[in-house]
Known about the structure:
Distance between the termini: 22 Å
Strand order of the largest sheet: 3-2-1-4-5
Helix content: 10-25%
Amino acid sequence: MKIAAMTESPGLEGKIAKDFSSAGYLMILETEPVEVDAVYPRGELSDCDLAGKVVEHDCEAVLCGPIEEAPFVILADEGCVTRYQASGLTAGTALREMEAYRLSMIPDFIGGTGCGSGGEGACAGHHDHGGAEDE
């Protein structure tokens, strides 16, 4: 399984950035065995470019911090990628915490209205996929 991590520095000891847009690196991690599959330095890549790379690699989840609307839509609606709040943890620790179901899901983009705000009482669209924390 492939998992993306938005980090301050490369490697499993790199910390997950405080938010998606402040990450210096996108890492694609393989979970069995745990290894770094690819590293993309931010350089000239936009948040949307990085979100597209996550989808391109067919990642099931991304370990990150809060996300702006445009990359959130790419990840959630276009790529069906589950977003986990992991700011401040190392990539390796965040991966273990995710696998143990101890990370919170990021349900909406920065400034979004959140789950169930439309009176529907349940998540729709980008909340229909993912793990046990979606419910």
